[in-house]
Amino acid sequence: MAEPTAAPADGLAAGLAAEYALIYAYGVAGAEISDDGARSLAGDAEYSHRDLRDELTAYMAGIGLIPPPPEAAYTMAPMDDEGAAIAALVALEDATAVTWRTVITTTTGDDRRRALDGLSNAASRAALWRRWLGEVAGTTAFPGA
Amino acid sequence: MSVACSPDVHVVEHFLDGALRTSRTMIARYDAVLPTVDGDRQALLTALRADHEAHASALALRIGAGASLITAAAFDAEPSVKELRKAESEAHKEAVDQCVASEEPQAARLLASIAASRAAHRELLHG
């Protein structure tokens, strides 16, 4: 597999774009999720991604980078019912973990620490969803790989 | 081992040694707690322990022959899920620091996934 070639700033921007898409997805999925436990999980996850977005945009601005804005809308997998909505969220959490893991090798120092925050959060949210869906643990040994 | 031939390699190997020691310590911690739980909780802990086994195998593969000399650290915490969660949190922070300090891309990616896995364990052990 080829090594990622993105510059550090591009890496953080890619991670930020993934966070934007997840926040958008939680907004769409919220209309389909009625189970109290799932709503609680979704709420916690959405807030965690909003926190990451806010911390990352502030961090990028603080080091002289212009954070890219979110898209007006994102193309999502169908979320016609609760099951489909949660499946889409799990897939997006996994995809976000992959994005952040790719950023690891294009960053150093505090930039890499931000990428690790993103990877760890996405891995945790995906595991919590899988556990809620009935898996014994819901974890993977190597998130993002 | 030939780690002394390159300063960079020596530094990375040092990080991997520390990560492997922690993975093996986590396995020992789970082994201490597993007999005290049953049912769903036991199944969860067994699955999380398996993740640590996978981490240890991957780290040992990268370290090579010297890996067999790296053993679990001693610990004296009470065998409880609460203490496991605390240990997962500390292990996560350690892997983050190791990943940030790593200069070798493959090692950094491995340590990143291990850090994320430990973070997920911490969340699953909540409550």
Structural class of chain B: mainly alpha
What is the count of distinct domains of chain A?
A: 1
Estimate percent helicity of chain A.
55-70%
Q: Cα-atom Rg of chain A, whole angstroms?
A: 15 Å
Helix/strand-derived category of chain A reads mainly alpha
Number of H/I helices of chain B: 4
The CATH homologous superfamily of chain B is named: Ferritin, core subunit, four-helix bundle
Taking all Cα atoms into account, the compactness measure Rg of chain B is 15 Å
Order of helices and strands of chain B: HHHH
SSE topology string of chain A = HHHH
Distance between the termini of chain A: 12 Å
CATH H-level homologous superfamily name of chain A: Ferritin, core subunit, four-helix bundle
The end-to-end span of chain B amounts to 44 Å
Average pLDDT value of chain A? 92
Oligomer category? heterodimer
Could you outline the blueprint of secondary structure elements for this entry?
The complex is a heterodimer of chains A (145) and B (127).
Chain A: H1 8-29, H2 36-62, H3 82-104, H4 109-132
Helix pairs in contact in A: 1-2, 1-3, 1-4, 2-4, 3-4
Chain B: H1 7-33, H2 39-63, H3 81-101, H4 105-124
Task: Tell me about this structure.
The complex is a heterodimer of chains A (145) and B (127). Chain A has 4 helices and no strands. The N and C termini of chain A lie close together (12 Å). The longest helix of chain A is centred in the middle third of the chain and has 27 residues, at 36-62. Chain A has a single domain, classed as Ferritin, core subunit, four-helix bundle (Ferritin, Up-down Bundle), CATH 1.20.1260. Chain A has helices at 8-29, 36-62, 82-104, 109-132. Chain B is mainly alpha-helical and 127 residues long. Chain B has a single domain (7-124), classed as Up-down Bundle (Ferritin), CATH 1.20.1260. In chain B, helix 1 packs antiparallel against helix 2, helix 2 (39-63) packs antiparallel against helix 4 and helix 3 (81-101) runs antiparallel to helix 4 (105-124). The longest helix of chain B has 27 residues, at 7-33. Residues 1-8 of chain B have low confidence and may be disordered. Chains A and B meet through helix 3 and helix 4 of A and helix 2, helix 3 and helix 4 of B.
